[in-house]
Amino acid sequence: MAPERGSVLGLDAATEVRLRQESPFLWVNPGRRPLAEVRDALAVTRADIEGAADRLARFAPLLAGLFPELAPAGGVIESGLLPVPRFAARLKRQGLPAGDAVYLKADHALPVAGSVKARGGFHAVLCVAERLALAAGLLAGPGDDYCKLAGQPARALFAGHTLSVGSTGNLGLSVGIMGRALGFGVTVHMSAEARAWKKKKLRSLGATVVEHPGDYTAACSVAREEAAASATTHFIDDENSLDLFLGYAVAGLRLPARLAALGLAVAPERPLCLHLPCGVGGAPGGIALGARLALGDGVLAFFAEPTQAPSMLLGLASGRHDAASVAQLGLSGRTLADGLAVARPSRFVGRLMQPIVDGVFTVTDAAMVASVAALWRDEGLRLEASAAASAAGPHLVRAAGLPRLAGRDATHILWATGGSLLPEADFADVLAQAGREAGGEPAG
Ligand SMILES: *Cc1c(COP(=O)(O)O)cnc(C)c1O
């Protein structure tokens, strides 16, 4: 039953063995290219991403009205770039070069959605709302007052439409929160990994949650088929949505301002390593592309995946992208990192990432849990397991001895993709598990 090594899957033998053994490692992407060589051929341009940033800006006054917590920032949904001195010292005690700097991008604390999905998921919902409102004549054009969309005529329009989405948890949450706030019907198809509290929260918002016993791809296909049969159902396709991707990518364009505020320079001589938790690839892919377009080739992007669900690694390394499933490696796809628990990458993101991403690394559940505990103890940060996958990056990347980093001090950004909405009891469970496992893993 096991496919022959290197032949059926299209992987080199060493990569296939490491994936099958579920041992954490960094796969270095031989397809990575300087931006100047590939920029004009990319399926997504800087102008496309700026279009998404403009859309988020048009909607900001409306969002500030819908969500009081956004009022202070004028409806702009952003997070801080934080120094993590105690955690950085821990990594250095464990061997990270003394000259490297470590920061954490606090998307786990993004207002309203509590995860990286606040940019992508919200943007995808706002695209649907804008299209419908323009078509119905409720908005005259992009210069109109978008606060009108909180009024009765717009709510009546949106109430006649349903947003549908397949989700391992956080995407459903972001689509549910924004969709319901605008008055849409929302149906979320959840895979087996989805946490109970996410389903409960969605139901409390008035969304319909459909639970699927199978994996993420299966939940998505059901949702896709249902939506295709209805003119008033809008499917937000995590495995193939450009609108989602562009929303995520806005974070990359915003990065230079965040770095400048901290006095951090980026150049090939002072490389910036982004460590990005990866599920289907939309969030890390968007951030990586946006950051490389905004900051150039001094940016190195690394994706983090569970050892049980290395879907992007498999897709890129085999060149088979969404045609390859981690099940073909004998992996279960089961992981505590619910946000990363996908068997196949996005149809278009994998191909788009071929020249963009520097590498993909895998992380065990035990290591993620240990990092959750360490970041809590050291920095008081509340992350979910998926977000903490990023913390394994600096060591693995340094251990790989990449020529682009040799002899240079690097800045590492751990992209913390979710966690602040985690209920106390769920967070306590993760910490308790870390306590039980300490000893085997470097929980500190
Ligand atoms: C969705 C998610 C990711 C990964 O995003 P993809 O677009 O699926 O690659 C990472 N971390 C968390 C917490 C998420 O919810």
UniProtKB/TrEMBL annotation:
It comes from the Bacteria. Its cofactor is pyridoxal 5'-phosphate. GO terms for biological process: D-serine catabolic process; isoleucine biosynthetic process. Its EC number is 4.3.1.18. It catalyses: D-serine = pyruvate + NH4(+). Transmembrane segments: none annotated. GO terms for molecular function: D-serine ammonia-lyase activity; hydro-lyase activity; pyridoxal phosphate binding. It holds the Pfam family PALP. InterPro entries: D_Ser_am_lyase (IPR011780), Ser/Thr_Dehydratase (IPR050147), TrpB-like_PALP (IPR001926), TrpB-like_PALP_sf (IPR036052). The modification N6-(pyridoxal phosphate)lysine is found at residue 117. Keywords: Lyase, Pyridoxal phosphate. Residues 98-402 form the Tryptophan synthase beta chain-like PALP domain. Gene3D superfamilies: 3.40.50.1100. Belongs to the serine/threonine dehydratase family. DsdA subfamily. This is Probable D-serine dehydratase. It comes from Desulfovibrio sp. U5L. The gene is dsdA.
